[in-house]
Design brief:
Residues 34-53 bind DNA. Residues 11-71 form the HTH tetR-type domain. InterPro entries: Homeodomain-like_sf, HTH_TetR, Rv0078-like_C. 30% of the residues are buried. The chain starts with a helix and ends in a 5-residue tail after the last helix. It has nine helices and no strands. By secondary structure, it is mostly helical. It has helices at 3-28, 35-42, 46-52, 56-80, 85-99, 103-117, 119-143, 152-172, 178-191.
């Protein structure tokens, strides 16, 4: 076996573990899934799992990072499709709420993420995945005079916190009207930031 084929095999094994871990964590939650079940579903040994991840928590962290990066990409792509800075901000925020209604995103990113990793680690991953983009958008809007001059960090964290809380509330809701109502409330909140 060549060095390149071994590297491909290792990556294939890692991807299988993350894929099956994600499927199982999303379906039943972190606490209800055992390592034996994950390795059986991925078709690998426990030794292979421990070659890639120190623990079930580390595998979950990799799954969470993947989910957060997917949501961040979706938000960025949606925002970037709009020509003006204000529309980019509002479309990105709305895209976050919509993406957060996916059952696997809700369970992994919003419910189990903070519980499994702890608030500090979860928040650091959230900041790396999406808060940075929100801060950049707000900075650009302030520089262009579309939002009154103010410190960006507190505004970013207030908006991020509000959207995360709304996403958690939506995760527990069974009313299909709650998403459009929440998106309308978010639009009103964002409109209140506009200068003039």
């Amino acid at each position: 076996m060549t060095q390149g084929s071994r590297a491909r095999q290792r990556e294939h094994t890692r991807q299988a573990l993350v894929r099956e871990g994600r499927r199982l964590f999303a379906a039943r939650g972190y606490g209800a899934v055992g390592l034996s079940e994950i390795v059986r579903a991925a078709g690998v040994t426990k030794g292979a799992l421990y070659h890639h991840f120190d623990s079930k928590t580390e595998l979950f962290r990799a799954v969470l990072e993947e989910v957060q990066q997917e949501v961040a990409r979706n938000v960025a792509e949606t925002a970037d499709a709009h020509p003006d800075p204000w529309s980019r901000l509002t479309a990105g925020c709305q895209a976050f709420l919509a993406a957060s209604t996916g059952p696997d995103v809700q369970r992994i990113m919003l419910v189990d993420g903070p519980a499994v990793l702890g608030w500090s680690q979860w928040r650091a991953l959230d900041e790396a995945a999406s808060v940075r983009h929100l801060a950049e958008a707000l900075t650009a809007l302030i520089e262009q005079g579309l939002i009154a001059p103010q410190p960006v960090a507190p505004l970013t964290h207030l908006l991020s916190g509000a959207m995360n809380e709304a996403a958690l509330w939506l995760a527990a809701s069974e009313n299909p009207e709650d998403l459009p109502a929440t998106q309308a409330a978010l639009s009103r909140m964002l409109d209140a930031l506009r200068a003039g």
